[in-house]
């Protein structure tokens, strides 16, 4: 089984399969998805390595069902190993070659349940992007007529209503109808976000791991699912320490160390997943504001209050989010529960 390593380059209509045995290429063939499924079922158990992409979780699950040792590998690593030009054959061969490198960190695949959680989060993110895009579009188009949106006028809602109801502003009926249509579309986007929040809340409460993560300060259903996807499912990679996970999310200073000289840069300037970091910092800020409104009951709340006095709320929120990620990593790695430590009476 371990003598045969198969590298698979996945695509929508064609799948390239490169079978290697004892460091020699036995075959490198293109198959349709149907043919590849039949090939998995009829082949003897072997190591099959997929380049991580949109369909890799499905095919990994299928390969495991047929008794294969299925793994996922980073597309960035495959690209650095690939020789010659980028073709399907070269990509499949590079997948097999990358899998045989020393101390390779493979990516955890997702189960069907985990993919469902991921879908809820991604749909919500898409709805938010649509909402923000439509809000900015309407604001900029109204600004073309020197109509400015301000809180004193009731925000965007009040301005749009005034434009639609004011019969003396000189706008045509077609323009009013078009503006009304876009405004209703924006309202539907806002309602869809609320629905996704309800779906995520229900899914998080039904999932034992996500439910336990909500015991952390500043972690609600959305952040619990985000942490579970990033850490528990290995979506951002496999980490040996919670500090590594926090650094990958963008909650620690960037290092530019060389020659034994340690030089720390900014926090969160170069982050791949801005949405994840933003949600964690927003949740932490909510916990900071709540802790500042009442006497400290736990050691964590006392630390928050002392931190705010030294560095301010914004810095404290980032520091708390950093602690949250590290604690969540320890919970998922060790299978433990979190309980805030109370102050001594």
N- to C-terminal separation?
A: 61 Å
* Oligomeric state of the chains in view: single chain
Mean pLDDT: 88
SS-derived structural category: alpha/beta
> What proportion strand?
5-15%
* Strands, total number: 7
Number of helices: 13
What fraction, in percent, of the residue positions are helical?
55-70%
Q: List the strand order in the largest sheet.
A: 3-2-1-4-5
Give me the Rg, rounded: 26 Å
Shape: globular
Largest sheet: 5 strands, mixed
Spans of 5+ residues with little confidence (pLDDT < 50)? none
What is the chain-wise order of helices and strands?
Answer: EEEHEHEHHHHHHHHEEHHH
Describe this structure in words.
By secondary structure, this protein is α/β, with parallel strands linked by helices. It has 13 helices and 7 strands. Helix 2 links the parallel strand 4 and strand 5.
Topology summary:
Blueprint: E1 4-9, E2 15-21, E3 24-31, H1 33-42, E4 47-51, H2 56-65, E5 69-73, H3 75-81, H4 88-99, H5 112-143, H6 155-165, H7 173-206, H8 208-213, H9 221-232, H10 242-249, E6 253-255, E7 264-267, H11 274-292, H12 299-311, H13 313-334
Parallel strand pairs: 1-4, 4-5
Antiparallel strand pairs: 1-2, 2-3, 6-7
Helix pairs in contact: 3-4, 5-7, 5-9, 7-9, 9-11, 9-13, 10-13, 11-13, 12-13
């Amino acid at each position: 089984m371990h003598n045969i390593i198969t590298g698979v380059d996945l695509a929508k209509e064609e799948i390239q399969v490169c079978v290697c045995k004892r460091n020699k290429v036995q075959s490198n063939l293109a198959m349709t998805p149907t043919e590849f499924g039949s090939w998995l079922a009829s082949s003897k158990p072997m190591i099959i390595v997929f380049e991580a992409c949109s369909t890799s979780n499905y095919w990994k699950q299928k390969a495991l069902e047929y008794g294969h040792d299925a793994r996922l590998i980073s597309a960035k690593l495959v690209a650095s190993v690939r020789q010659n030009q980028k073709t399907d054959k070269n990509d499949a061969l590079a997948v097999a070659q990358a899998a045989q490198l020393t101390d390779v960190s493979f990516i955890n695949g997702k189960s069907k349940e985990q993919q469902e959680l991921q879908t809820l989060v991604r749909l919500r993110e898409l709805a938010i992007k649509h909402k923000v895009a439509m809000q900015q579009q309407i604001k900029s188009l109204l600004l073309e007529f020197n109509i400015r949106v301000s809180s004193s006028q009731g925000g965007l809602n009040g301005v749009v209503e005034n434009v639609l109801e004011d019969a003396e502003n000189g706008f045509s009926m077609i323009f009013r109808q078009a503006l009304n249509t876009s405004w209703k579309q924006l309202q539907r986007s806002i309602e869809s976000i609320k629905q996704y929040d309800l779906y995520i809340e229900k899914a998080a409460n039904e999932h034992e791991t996500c439910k336990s993560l909500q015991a952390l300060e500043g972690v609600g259903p959305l952040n619990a699912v985000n942490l579970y996807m990033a850490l528990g499912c290995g979506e951002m990679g496999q980490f040996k320490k919670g500090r590594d996970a926090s650094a990958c999310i963008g909650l620690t200073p960037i290092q530019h160390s060389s020659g034994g000289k340690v030089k720390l840069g900014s926090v969160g300037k170069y982050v791949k997943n801005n949405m994840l970091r933003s949600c964690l910092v927003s949740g932490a800020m909510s916990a900071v504001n709540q802790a500042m409104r009442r006497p400290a009951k736990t050691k964590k709340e006392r630390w928050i209050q002392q931190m705010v006095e030294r560095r301010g709320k914004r810095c404290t929120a980032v520091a708390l989010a950093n602690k949250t990620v590290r604690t969540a990593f320890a919970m998922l790695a060790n299978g433990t529960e979190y309980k805030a430590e109370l102050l001594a009476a």
